[in-house]
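URGENT: need a sanity check before tomorrow's submission.

F., can you look over the Probable malate:quinone oxidoreductase record below? I want to be sure the sequence and structure line up before it goes out.
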Amino acid sequence: MSETVDVVLIGGGIMSATLGTLLKELQPDWKIVALERDGEVAQESSNAWNNAGTGHSALCELNYMPDAADPSKAVGINEQFQQSRQLWTSLVAKGVLDEPSTFINSAPHMTFVTGEKDVAYLKARYETLKEQPLFEGIEYSEDSRVIHQWAPLLMEKRRKTDEPFAATRVPAGTDVDFGSLTRRLFDHLKDGGVDVLLNHEVKKLSRQKDGTWLVRSRNKVGRTPGYLNARFVFVGAGGWAIKLLQGSGIPEIKGYGVFPIGGQFLKTSDPALVARHRAKVYSQAAVGAPPMSVPHLDARVVDGEGSLLFGPFATFSPKFLKKGSWLDIVSQVRPHNIGSMLKVAVTNLDLVKYLVGELLKTHAKKIESLRAFMPTADGADWELIQAGQRAQVMKDGKLQFGTEVVSAADGSIAGLLGASPGASTAATIMLNLLSSCFPDRIAGWEPQLRELIPTYGETLNGDRAKAEATTKRTAEALGILA
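Structure tokens as predicted:
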């Protein structure tokens, strides 16, 4: 016999943790079960060393604003991150989250570019964004002395005869340890009666006649099968989500495919270097590079220890997760998505060329890439670490950037596909999911949602006073710069 529960969360990452936390606040009487195939939560994309830890708010990421005159997408990403900040602020006040510095810290967000074309673009971008309330405080400079004050390692021994350069800086950027955040949220869920079952790999999702879902799993330790009936299922399993959604048989998944891209970072924990670089510095992506491969030199704080990361350097594996199957990329192929996937292959030859070039890079070549940011970099100070696997969405013959929720028409099951900005915008993604999957309940939940996220249903950028007051309130509560 299988137990019937209200909600099953598949995957132990930030998305399941966020959704579970929201549902526990909204419906404390619901029975929730989380299933994670690993022996711990937050071991894939949410793990601190599998991502850059950037609080993605479009302060420095150029790929969110390809047209320097159109700030709409950048503003939208920032709005979403502000909702995450508000949720975390409320959870700190409730005692759900511990000392904020265990998961979020200030780290100015910078953009650094070289060459006349990119300098002109960055200046135009700055002129557009400085008028936006959510980008209050953005600074621009082409002066090496100013940029040296912002980030000394960028300027030391940079030849004055080199091509022109420019930078922007927003002091109010953040570094987020999503692994620490995820673990604390799951600890709270367990304390509240949620069953968090580790080493449980979901094998099959089957719709039942009564509208529930039979969730079949296997305990990887005892090799014993498990069965749950769920009124609602959320598939937050990273790259594994497409396989489970395809197996569920919902028509909404037709046409989708994913393309796995891995990454590596150069890392140093040398205290002297860490002390001299307190920012996250992004630049332009190489021709053909996927959006998530924008080069950046990042200050990180993980488990209280400071370090610097540079990268990412793209890698290729057919696996959808670091601990996935070598057959993942093949096993997703269906008659309804093969045409779209082949079109992606044909129309993205620049990506193929880029990936081949990345795979051929030696450690010395990667240090050379680092020196474009940090001219004084010494290869002996840096080690190469493996980052996470990302599964980029393929749909309608295009390789898409961002995240996308796929849900059944009746709202009984939903899953998340895609990558960046992902974790930083988890609150908004899950709020949208609640609205689409629980349309008969969302109005009744609104008062509680407004307690958690005071500007729920509103935007900030159109009201400068509200934007300033909200960012100041959350900054003070989280111990970060406003």
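My own read: The longest strand covers residues 257-268. The chain has a mean pLDDT of 92. If you see anything odd, call me.
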